[in-house]
Amino acid sequence: MRSPERSRTARVNARPPGGARCENVSNNPKKIRGKGMAQPSDLEDRFRGALLGTMVGDALGMPLEGWTSHRIRREVGEVRDMLDGRLERGSFTDDTQMAAALAEALLAAEDPSRPDPGRIAEWFARLYDPTRGYGENTGKLLEAIRGGEPWQRALETHTIPGGSFANGAAMRVAPAALAGHPSPEAVLRLADLQAEATGHTHPEARFGARFQALAVLEGLRSPRGSEAQQPVAFLAKLIPTPTDALGWAEIPVAFRSAFDWLLRYPEATGDEVERRIGNGVRAASSVPAALWAVLRSPSDPEEVLVRAVSLGGDTDSIAAMAGAIAGALNGASRFPGRWVEALEEGPWGRSRLLDLADELYRRNRGATGSADVVPMGTT
Ligand SMILES: [Mg+2]
Prior knowledge:
This protein starts with a helix and ends in a 14-residue tail after the last helix. Helix content is about 60%, strand content about 0%. It has a single domain (about 40-379), classed as Orthogonal Bundle (ADP-ribosylglycohydrolase fold), CATH 1.10.4080. The protein is globular, with a radius of gyration of 19 Å. By secondary structure, it is mainly alpha-helical. The protein contains 21 helices and no strands. The chain binds magnesium ion. Magnesium ion binds near residues 93, 94 and 316. Magnesium ion (MG) binds near residues 1, 95 and 316.
């Protein structure tokens, strides 16, 4: 999620701070995990997939942010490899950095069922790096907090009255789904609190974060591969009805019409999605656009991300969200090795993100490793 003026930021090919890459790696979960360690379970691989998918999608979309789909087709063609952009190939942006900060905040929370949004904001501020391309207001908010301004006062000064309607709270929300798993109520509460942290309180931004979090949760809970045959059924499970936790009446109109259109045209092309749903930073465009990319090929994470990036617009955030859902559905081991190998390392790079997924998994399963699931949001 970035403001239009940031899309015109001069390209920087220099490696960002802490951006050293790790060599000789693979998307083989055993190798990612470390020599001699046990193969992750299916659910652990999916936890990792939700965070790795955020990063892979973010990095794949990074060079094309702000481009139209037409320009992508004309100048690059189908995007199947990591490319250099304003950052070096494989670099992540604010989407991944904020997801990492959210994971850290959820793990550090005194009360995991109700983390303090001010504390979450402090974690966002701690990891803040302006070269990653933050939205203008979010950047100002995090700079103020880093400068010592109390969260509540910084929020009053630096956020839009009525709240932002952008996708900032949705693009980073995957850790909330991991922490709250398997309880939808816990996931929704965590999604709300992290949205509040940065003033993403406009109904569309809030709903976008809630919906994206539930989509990741549904991915974690869905049998592997079953959705490939039934994309409409997967969508139907996600779209709220009057009896669901979200409640149909709570759905902002722009989301209702996007969902309605996706249900009627599950085979829609990218051009049609760009025209009818949009590809911009507005949550009501980019969240359903990411979902479309997943629904077209739910069991194939590579195709999901190629489609997500092809839409143009807010490519890094659309692909980060699509990647989080596809990763939860299929697991980290299903992303192409050439993409995973290209990902940036460093303090909050690929390895740290996978560690955070593992820590959330262990917390979620209980310290004893018992099969009984203890969602953080309900303890
Ligand atoms: Mg970004």
